[in-house]
């Protein structure tokens, strides 16, 4: 086979391969999703993070605005310290409430941000003061059972 | 009894010796790669024979694997009332695991065995020696282009496999079974991360490409120059590549996806 035909077929092969990669990136993956190239980092302390994991989404009003970066246990306050990044184009007031929510009944957990009313905005490295822990199903059921037992005794 | 122990010992020593030889061969291969790149059309030729001609088998197998994933995945998911998540299941299992691994296995048995056979036969018919006599380095002229062609082809083939698989899953899930098309794609897109899932799959396929190509050229170059030796070398290529792919896949997966999601 002559060299030019060979080059042509190899070119076709490379084009198909790269087209497949683009298909995976754009159609299958969320490459065009939330742009997290410019971000700022915010910290929050929770009493209980439940099943929150690193890379879990941070949502506000259901829209993904960032991702969880790291989760560590703070030995001074005995609480979980969660660091998450938010895209720079989303700004939140200083009195924003961060809560750990669950998508669906058994879905993965994420951080929900409820914007406050302050005029100052959160900056890089700030601490979100008001937080709400994850709902632990066992505790909830235990409380419910306890209440029922108390009601039955009255 | 002593005979048995002696055999086991010699097998172990032989294995380590061959590993050392392969490492030295790899170093030599990298050293002469520059020389091979100066005549890049040799590599192009090998990409045609190794990569382009594998396209059909890769595409067809990818389609069928995706279709089977669609059928089996739907069967299981609909028991939990989450048939809509079929796209996630198909895409994640293909992009993370099945794409690189199955494409690697197919590539090893289709192209790797051919490379070993070609180099082995060249050695048996003393073509490699003849090249050496003419001051043509056989590693730069014969071995390096085949190696680099394999390394370059593997990621492309794995991507094509995954893409065809997703199309196969879509064909079964959406067109035949009737999963909602919007849910299929949108759930897939929100679950598959470009950097985390797709790029790790690409990294895997590059590693498998290096492993398969190295095993193929080494076994060919190292075989005993007889008809029996060549056939044994081909068997060793296919078996060794398959084991290397599966073992490397385990190691890479435990590095990449360790309990993070």
UniProtKB/TrEMBL annotation, chain A:
Pfam families: MlaD. Signal peptide: none annotated. InterPro entries: ABC_MlaD (IPR030970), Mce/MlaD (IPR003399), MlaD_Phospholipid_Transporter (IPR052336). NCBIfam families: OM_asym_MlaD. The chain crosses the membrane at residues 6-26. GO terms for molecular function: phospholipid binding; phospholipid transporter activity. The keyword Membrane applies. Residues 39-116 form the Mce/MlaD domain. Coiled coil: none annotated. PANTHER family: INTERMEMBRANE PHOSPHOLIPID TRANSPORT SYSTEM BINDING PROTEIN MLAD (PTHR33371:SF4), INTERMEMBRANE PHOSPHOLIPID TRANSPORT SYSTEM BINDING PROTEIN MLAD-RELATED (PTHR33371). This is Outer membrane lipid asymmetry maintenance protein MlaD. The lineage of its organism: Bacteria, Pseudomonadati, Pseudomonadota, Betaproteobacteria, Rhodocyclales. The keyword Glycosyltransferase does not apply. The gene is mlaD.
